[in-house]
Amino acid sequence: MSTLDIDFVRAQFPAFAEPSLQGRAFFENAGGSYTCKPVLDRLNRFYTQRKVQPYAPYDASRLGGEEMDEARARLAALMGVDTDELSFGPSTTQNTYVLAQAFRQWMQPGDAIIVTNQDHEANSGPWRRLADDGIEIREWQIDPESGSLNPQDLENLLDENVRLVCFPHCSNVVGEINPVTEITAIAHAAGAFVCVDGVSYAPHGLPNVGDLGPDIYLFSAYKTYGPHQGCMVIRRALGELLPNQAHYFNGGTLYKRFTPAGPDHAQIAASAGMADYLELLCDHHDGPETGAPERGAFVHDLMRKHEIALLQPLLDAVKDRNALRLIGPSDASRRAPTVALALNAKAEPVAAELSKYGIMAGGGDFYAHRPLQAMGVDPDQGVLRLSFTHYTSRQEIDQLLEALDRVL
């Protein structure tokens, strides 16, 4: 395994050369990442050269449509799924609401959906609202101390009435990486489909959804170095089973069936820049020359190795500190670098104090009311969340640790 060339990585992100951001270390990446240069270049090109209705025969339109198609094809290949199994929508939250409406039409009163109280509200709330239509909602609950989900507890909730199991790849406050393949196998064995919220995981290495096995996988491009789009993988067997949610004449096209809003041409086209960036990393670090899933897996592991090395010192520094509680595991290999700290004070003013030392972080509930309440944390008091990704440097970790010592 290569070691991540952090200087090369940071050179791909214009934010690190921006004068107004100098000396400021960004630790709120779970809310949205910096955008890589290939995405910005494609977005600028589209708006300046191709801002016309796509898929017409003249050059500007043809090229715009081809670039939109390229984004879907290349990202789908990196994730090990077919091109038309990837859809783009305005946001992950909106994509989930559309899916929930499709399941509402397909399911019958008395059918059941399992959700967790570990989720961000976007992959919980839309499903819970189906209770108004007679759908039974069963909650797979976290351990109130660790915040973990126990697969055995899921098995106890499953029966022949369950049609769908929804859970996060990792929580945006707990951070623990859930065993997606194991959980998916348990749900499939009981005859249920699986929906995974990957918003808090995908920025740390684009997953091979084909290998993981879920029927739905959701994540946000704007948290994965890209534009503000929601990315949604729906495997063919389920996508063709659910009722069409788009214009009736689009029902025969899988990637259009669950995107009733008109596509954002420029942002979809710019999403190909995410693939450009991952390919750049693979080539620069002498990764495999062929096979999109293999190249994607190489970059995934490269990112994770770097993040784990930077995350462990942060976890070690806070796990035994008085007057705070580390949410989630203290072993960096088991979690994403999204670190939530429950304090003996309201979190938002502490984040403001950290900003005086050049630390850009957040305090609040982060739409994670349910897991915080389940773990005995007052959502109004919130947590201090320190989140980073692979472009974070060791020097920035040192800056954060010094600032925490001063503030806490």
The CATH class assignment of the largest domain is Alpha Beta
The SS-based structural class is alpha/beta
Q: Please state roughly what percent of the residues sit in beta strands, choosing from under 5%, 5-15%, 15-25%, 25-35%, 35-45% or over 45%.
A: 5-15%
Order of neighbouring strands in the sheet with most strands: 2-8-7-6-5-3-4
CATH topology of the largest domain: Aspartate Aminotransferase, domain 2
Oligomerization state: single chain
Number of strands: 13
CATH superfamily of the largest domain: Type I PLP-dependent aspartate aminotransferase-like (Major domain)
| Separate helix tally | 15
For the report, how would you describe the main beta sheet?
A: 7 strands, mixed
What does this protein structure show overall?
It is built from 15 helices and 13 strands. The chain has helices spanning 6-11, 37-49, 59-78, 92-106, 125-128, 151-157, 180-189, 209-212, 236-239, 265-270, 272-284, 292-318, 347-355, 369-374, 394-407, and strands at 25-26, 86-89, 112-116, 136-140, 162-168, 193-197, 216-220, 230-234, 324-326, 338-343, 359-360, 362-364, 383-387. The longest helix has 27 residues, at 292-318. Strand 3 (112-116), helix 5 (125-128) and strand 4 form a beta-alpha-beta unit. It has 408 residues and is of the alpha/beta class. It has a 7-stranded mixed beta sheet with strand order 2-8-7-6-5-3-4, with helices on both faces. The chain has a 4-stranded antiparallel beta sheet with strand order 9-10-13-12.
